[in-house]
C-alpha cells in the first residue's frame, strides 16, 4: 500500500515512490496503467509532470485537457501516454478513442479523471487518490493530522475509481 502525505518540497520523492510502487505491481509486459483520482486543483498534472522528470521525459508532461492524450518519450526510449478524461461524458467515449490501440504502444499510461471511463479501463489499471488538505483546523483534526500538514497533499493507493 502506498500512503504518503507531502508538500511541494517532497514532490520529486513522492513521484519516484509512485513510479516504483506502480512498476512493482506491473503485470508481465503489459503497460503500467496508472489512474490518478482527485478533485480539480488537487495537483494531478503537477504530480505527473514530476514523474516525467523522474523518467527523463523531454518535453515534460503538461495538461492534456484539450488534446485528451499526449505522448512523451523517456530518456530510455520508453513511451508515456498521458490522458485527461475530464471532458469525456462516459465509458462509450473512452472506448471510441480505441484505447487498445494506444495501450499496445505504451510502457506507461497515466490517466487523469479515470472515473469518466468507468469499467472500460484496462484490467491492470492501478488506482491512486490524490487529496488536498484544507486550511481548516477541523479538516486536519478530522483526518487525525497535526496543523503542520496544512496545504499538503495525500497520495494513497486505492482499489478502484469512485463512481461518477
What is the C-alpha radius of gyration, as a whole number of Å? 16 Å
- The CATH homologous superfamily is termed P-loop containing nucleotide triphosphate hydrolases
CATH class value? Alpha Beta
List segments where confidence is low: pLDDT < 50 over at least 5 consecutive residues.
none
- Known CATH architecture: 3-Layer(aba) Sandwich
Sketch the major β-sheet.
7 strands, mixed
**Strand order within the widest beta sheet:** 1-7-6-2-5-4-3
Mean pLDDT across residues: 85
The total beta strand count reads 7
What is the chain-wise order of helices and strands?
Answer: EHEHEEHHEEHE
Number of domains: 1
Query: Helix/strand-derived class?
Result: alpha/beta
Number of helices, where a helix is a run of at least 4 consecutive DSSP H or I residues: 5
- Strand composition percent: 15-25%
- In one word, what is the shape? globular
Give helix % range: 25-40%
What is the end-to-end distance?
Answer: 24 Å
CATH topology: Rossmann fold
Fold and architecture overview:
The chain is an alpha/beta fold. It is built from five helices and seven strands; from the N terminus they run E-H-E-H-E-E-H-H-E-E-H-E. It has helices at 11-24, 44-55, 91-96, 99-103, 137-142, and strands spanning 3-6, 32-37, 69-73, 79-84, 108-112, 126-132, 153-158. It has a seven-stranded mixed beta sheet with strand order 1-7-6-2-5-4-3, with helices on one face. A hairpin with a 5-residue loop joins strand 3 (69-73) and strand 4 (79-84).
Amino acid at each position: 500500500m502506498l500512503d504518503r502525505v507531502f508538500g511541494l518540497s517532497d514532490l520529486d520523492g513522492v513521484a519516484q515512490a509512485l513510479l516504483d510502487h506502480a512498476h512493482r505491481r506491473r503485470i508481465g509486459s503489459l503497460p503500467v496503467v496508472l489512474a490518478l483520482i482527485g478533485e480539480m486543483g488537487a495537483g494531478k498534472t503537477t504530480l505527473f509532470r514530476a514523474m516525467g522528470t523522474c523518467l527523463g521525459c523531454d518535453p515534460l508532461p503538461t495538461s492534456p485537457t484539450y488534446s485528451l492524450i499526449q505522448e512523451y518519450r523517456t530518456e530510455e526510449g520508453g513511451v508515456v501516454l498521458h490522458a485527461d478524461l475530464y471532458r469525456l461524458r462516459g465509458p462509450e467515449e473512452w472506448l471510441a478513442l480505441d484505447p487498445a490501440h494506444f495501450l499496445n504502444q505504451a510502457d506507461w499510461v497515466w490517466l487523469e479523471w479515470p472515473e469518466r471511463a468507468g469499467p472500460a479501463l484496462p484490467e491492470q489499471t492501478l488506482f491512486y487518490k490524490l487529496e488536498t488538505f484544507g486550511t481548516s483546523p477541523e479538516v486536519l483534526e478530522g483526518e487525525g493530522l497535526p496543523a503542520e500538514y496544512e496545504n499538503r497533499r495525500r497520495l494513497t493507493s486505492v482499489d478502484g475509481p469512485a463512481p461518477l
